[in-house]
Amino acid sequence: MPRRSASWFGAHGRAGMTARSWVKNQGYSDEVFDGRPVIGIGTTWSELAPCNAHQQRIAEAVKRGVWQAGGFPLEFPNMALGETLMRPTTMLYRNLLAMQAEETIRANPLDGVVLLSGCDKTTPGLLMAAASVDLPAVMLTGGPMLNGKYRGTDIGSGTAVWQAEADLVAGRITQEECYFIEGCMSRSNGHCMTMGTASTMACIVEALGMQLPYAASWPAVDARRYATAQRTGQRIVEMVQEDLKPSDVLTREAFRNAIRANAAIGGSTNAVVHLIAIAKRVGVELTVDDFDTDTREVPTLVNLQPSGKFLMEDFCYAGGLPAVLKELGDLVERDAITVTGRSMGENIADAEVHNREVITSFDEPFQPVGTGTAVLRGSLAPGGAVVKQSAASERLLVHRGPAMVFEDVDEYYAVCKDDDLDVDENTVLIVRNAGPKGYPGMPEVANVPVPKKVQDRGFDDIVRISDGRMSGTAYGTVILHVTPEAAAGGPLAFVRTGDIISIDVPNRRLDLEVPEEELERRRAEWATPENPYDRGYQRLYYDHVLQASDGADLDFLVGGSGSYVPRDGH
């Protein structure tokens, strides 16, 4: 059967001449058009996305592998989403990246693709695109930075930021010390070396079977990352020959492995939104409740910041994700096929744990069964809310206290340092209008710092509730993704300062203790906000974005369109 690319490069007449001749202007000779697999290498390289700035070197290593296996590699750019620089949030643009990459892959003479990602949203965005096109595809994440080093101790990117911010607010360090810490925690190429969203999604893609074993954890500057890139290039050519596609890999069993892996590594709550969005692209039924029910038997095995002590470099040397999956035993769906062409069980058969401080045993875990992401429901979150138990304070997992409501995060930051703020350790902070529509884009603003007044009283954590997200590098008792969001008319829109909020994580409850008739009265006074954007992508996004519990994709992007093959040379 002719390759898809043959419809371009093997065509006769004007269409074939056009396709071949304009590629020849890059110096390629005739034999690259002999019917060999054409492999697209899609990067998210940009100096505006610092976590991905080394992808050019990775792409060169992938190309070596493609050439070695008899393929023809062609590199192409995708929208770069750098969490550290883009405003208001890269999550606003995840769906735009997915749409752009999908159409680029579909419109070009490609038989298979290698997708290079790194920073938080580039990984799910590219995987959503690959799932919708369903050409043979393999991902390669860019790898974490080396461990941060500060005054003889290891510090983690992101997590050290939240710690330094709290110390600065409390007067324990100066602004000059903050400047020094910045350089200490970011000392090499790569994404966050804490178990933040970037590291979490790298592990998730490996657990899904969409990247090669151990690829999630090799540091960005480790030679073995480039050896893995070369092998990835070889493997995608084989996948084209085998016709192994994302729809073969991204099964319900694969998603179950990803969910359980996320619990075992103490992964980011952001994985919930991303995995649901990816599943909807391939037609796999996945709900927010699966992240609770599928993890009830899973302990937290990995002792990494922000939940623990160590960092991704340590995780790599301790055995990486294959060692964690092997430790989970029968909780892993071992028959799930992966991009290696082998099952997950075969991939992890020889994995070993080399440091039990970093990757603990199932029988003696870092944190016990049931400390992963919990999904809460109740009168405040009828569509669900999530909390990262491994990063929360045990004393606050069952709590009842008065709400202090802020319409947006800016309103909170304007007063959080005030000594006369009417707040104490029992207060429940509500930051609303931070959801998919409300901000827009559902930014990582929910983990607002504890008020200075409360810190001065000796408390470093209080309950915070929001329809937004928090960074995977953050910690604290923060209840996130409250659905429906306030901007969509969810109960969060009707909470008033002084209302009593009840949290019961063991029983998965989140309730607003206000009589239903009073809620109905408040609801009747509320008006649905109009789209505040008069043009461009933000207008499109606001009109079509789904709620967090549905993956926050655009409604018209759910599902896939497959790959386009031109007819009659057109």
Automatic annotation (TrEMBL):
Keywords recorded for this protein, A-Z: 2Fe-2S, Amino-acid biosynthesis, Branched-chain amino acid biosynthesis, Iron, Iron-sulfur, Lyase, Metal-binding
Top enzyme category: lyase
Sequence ranges assigned to domain Dihydroxy-acid/6-phosphogluconate dehydratase N-terminal in this UniProt record: 36-347
Domain of life: Bacteria
GO molecular function list: 2 iron, 2 sulfur cluster binding; dihydroxy-acid dehydratase activity; metal ion binding
Family of the protein in this entry: Belongs to the IlvD/Edd family.
The name this protein goes by in its record: Dihydroxy-acid dehydratase
